[in-house]
Amino acid sequence: MVAAHTNPTRAPFEPVREFLSSLTTYVQEFEKGLQRVKPVGVEVNGVPIATNEEQSHAEHSANVNYIVEKFGYPREDVMQWLSTVGYPEDVGIVDRKVIAQTLEQVVLHLIAAFLFI
Questions:
Q1: 49-72: buried (b, 16+ CB within 10 Å) or exposed (e) per residue?
Q2: What is the pTM of this model?
Q3: Is-contact 42 48, C-beta < 8 A?
Q4: pLDDT for 49
Q5: Cβ atoms within 10 A of the Cβ of 23, count?
Q6: Is 18 strand, coil or helix?
Q7: pLDDT digit string (tens) for 4-62?
Q8: DSSP secondary structure string, 46-110?
Q9: Which of 53, 55, 64, 66 has the most crowded Cβ, counting Cβ within 10 A?
Q10: Taking a C-beta distance cutoff of 8 angstroms, is the pair 28, 89 a contact?
Q11: Three-class SS string for 21-38?
C-alpha cells in the first residue's frame, strides 16, 4: 500500500498520480507472467492441476526467478505463494474494506503489544 500526504504542497497530486500509473503498469506486467503459471502441488480428485511440463515452466518463469534471486526465498515457497495472490487492476484505487481491515489489524496488534508489556 502506498500513502501520500494530503497536503498538496508536500505531495503534489500529479507526481503521485504519475507514480501510481507507472506502478500499475509494472503490476499488470507481473500479473501477466503469473497468469501463465498454474498452481504447483495442487490436486483435484488426486490429479495434479499442473503437469510436469507446466511445473517446469512455472519453475523457470521470470516472476519466480526474480523473487527467488532478489529475496532469497525457496523456489517451491515462491510458487505456492504466487498461486494464492492477486493484484489490483489499478494500484491508485484502494477499496475502503482493505483500508478498514488494515487499520483493524494495526489496532489489534497495538492492543496486544500494550497488554503484554
A1: ebeeebbeebbebebbeebbeeee
A2: 0.47
A3: yes
A4: 58
A5: 14
A6: helix
A7: 677 878 878 888 888 888 888 888 887 776 655 555 555 666 666 565 555 555 555 77
A8: TEESS-HHHHHHHHT-HHHHHHHHHH---HHHHHHHHTT----S-TT---HHHHHHHHHHHHHHH
A9: 64
A10: yes
A11: HHHHHHHHHHHHHHHCCC
CA distance 58 to 80: 10
Tens-digit pLDDT profile for residues 59-90: 557 788 888 999 999 988 988 888 787 777 88
Under 8 Å between Cβ of 58 and 35: no
Please give the Cα distance from 76 to 90 (Å, whole number): 29
**Which residues, 6+ apart, have CB-to-CB distance to 47 below 8 Å?**
none
